[in-house]
Amino acid sequence: MSGCEHKISGSxxxxxxxxxxxxxxxxxxxxxxCIECGLIKNLSSERPRGLGFFMNVIAELxxxxxxxxxxxxxxxxxxxxxxxxxxFGMDRFQQEKMFIEITARILNVPxxxxxxxx
Length: 118
Ligand SMILES: [Zn+2]
Fold this sequence. Notes:
The protein has helices at residues 51-64, 69-81, 92-107, 111-115; strands at residues 15-21, 24-31. The chain contains four helices and two strands; from the N terminus they run ββαααα.
């Protein structure tokens, strides 16, 4: 999926889906989607973050917890696999939710240790 340049569907071809603001469901809204890969465009007003932001959080975690290079690599791979950096389809809330889950699991730290750095 990553690597797709995302071609947006025409105005008549939209899918009605829940719309989220600050992680809360705000009812249904028509969403454009990519006709190449099928990814639905994120309409949230909160701009998604770049991968660099999350790598900085991991570096910060590394000052407080013992982190091996291989774990950092695993997190990066997992973020890539889930297209976390795909700004077309992700909003910040979704990104953070995934990042917290991945990082806490791979580093074996409590989720709040990650949350407090976001
Ligand atoms: Zn696409």
